[in-house]
Amino acid sequence: ESLEEDELNQEVRDVISSLPTVEGWLSHYQGFWIPTKCMHGVLATQKHLQAHETDILLATIPKAGTTWLKAILFALVNRVRYLDSQQHPLLANNPHTLLPFLETKLFYKKNEVSDLTLLTSPRLFATHLSYSSLPTSVKNSTCKIVYVCRNPKDTFVSQWHFQNKVGALMVTKPVSNSLEQSFNNFCRGMSVYGPFWDHVLSYWIESLEKPEKVFFLKYEEMKEQPIIHLKRLAEFLGCSFSPEEEEKGRVNDILKLCSFDNLSNLEINKKGKSSVFGIENASYFRKGEVGDWKNYLTAQMVERLDCITEEKFHTVGLKF
Ligand code: A3P
Known about the structure:
The chain is α/β, with parallel strands linked by helices. It contains 18 helices and 7 strands. Helices cover about 50% and strands about 10% of the residues. The strands form 2 sheets. It has a 4-stranded parallel β-sheet with strand order 5-4-6-7, sandwiched between helices. It has a 3-stranded antiparallel β-sheet with strand order 1-2-3, with no helix packed on it. A hairpin with a 2-residue loop joins strand 2 and strand 3 (about 30-35). Bound molecules: adenosine-3'-5'-diphosphate (A3P). Belongs to the sulfotransferase 1 family.
């Protein structure tokens, strides 16, 4: 082990043990509730990541559509190389394998950091960190950030299902996981990478100030008008579809490849386990619909959540 790694571990231990927690599984760091087991990776990436100008970073709050957008970004950026291939990497790999999270093991070791320079350009990464907690080099470079969010009711319901499903596999997990308790915690901001509203706001504001750097997308609008938004995304990333590509149906090819039905029925996603925390790939695909909250939340819960959302977002013109 390198000296740097030892130093980091000591630093991590010191920082983590000083943080307030929710039942040990979430730690309060820089204003957000981060899964304690990700803290090592968070500190490492903040310390080590050297962004390249061509990097593309997908930022989301968990359950906002990360898996979907990872697939779309990969397919979009690598379309010349792979879209006609019978062996498209998305057919044999879960999207999380192709587009790693910054705050997982990537930056634990000094040697692994240098390995990253070998990745082909543009490098694709993902993160659940809020804008304010991104590594300084990401904020200072001209690299692009794609932020995806989802209405808080569906985000909450999806988070709750996911935690129930994979909780048993996780090293640290929520102890109290009834719908009511989780809902209460969510409303109080104590959810994975929450407060939900602060997370969304951190990127929304940045996207207003720097539209060439931060692309802000809602899960719902991507569901409703996928063609329009995929074309906007391509334009933002500087890889617009040519008229010939449009004629050949490239936009639809990507959307079909990355659709819920297609991805969730692939062998790798039905049976495989992702390298990220050893979670089963199938748990990243549940319903993939807008409005499933209607089947879970009471009228009172809806009112409470809507009220918070209205209060937090109305002054900045953000609606769900
Ligand atoms: P539901 O639990 O509402 O079904 P994340 O990828 O950020 O973990 O989010 C997971 C959510 O996105 C789940 O929502 C999942 O079903 C949905 N999802 C996964 N793949 C999708 C796809 N290709 N298209 C649309 N939604 C998808």
